[in-house]
Amino acid sequence: MIRSEMRRSPLVLAALFSSLLTLPVLAGEEMDVRKDGSLWARLEKGGAVRIDGVVVGEIEDDETIRVEGRIAGRIEEDGEIREDGTVRTRVEKDGTLRRNGTVIGRIEEGGAIRRHGRIWGEATPCCASFDDLRRLTALLLFFDRSFFVR
What we know:
Blueprint: H1 2-21, E1 31-35, E2 38-43, E3 48-51, E4 54-59, E5 64-67, E6 70-75, E7 80-83, E8 86-91, E9 96-99, E10 102-107, E11 112-115, E12 118-124, H2 130-143
Antiparallel strand pairs: 1-2, 1-12, 2-3, 3-4, 4-5, 5-6, 6-7, 7-8, 8-9, 9-10, 10-11, 11-12
C-alpha cells in the first residue's frame, strides 16, 4: 500500500504543477514605462496602474481593466483590447499595435515603444511574454488616450 501511494505522489505533484502553469499571469512582474525619458507609468505586481506615482486604475487577474474604480474594458486572450464591450485595439504576438486594422505602432522585444515609426517610450522589464504585451497595450489605450489616435 505504501508503494502505490509513493507512485501516485509524483503524478499528483506533476498534475498540480501543470495546472499552475495554465493560470492567467497578467498580474506578473512590475513594469515601468518611460515617456520622454521620465518615469510615466508603473504596472505593479498586483495589477495596480500608477501614472506619475498616483494609482489611477487596475488590470485585474481576470483581465478586466478598471479606470478610477469603474470597469472600463477587458483584455482578450488573442490580444484584442475591448473598451465598454467594443474592440478598440489589438496587439499581435510580434508586438505590432493596430487600431481598426491600421498599424499605429509596435512594442519591440527590448521594450522600446514606437508610435508611427518613432520612439515614443520604453517599458522595462519587457516583454518576456504575450501577457506583457497585452498588459502594456491596455495601459497605452486606457491611460494615454492620445497614443492610438491617428
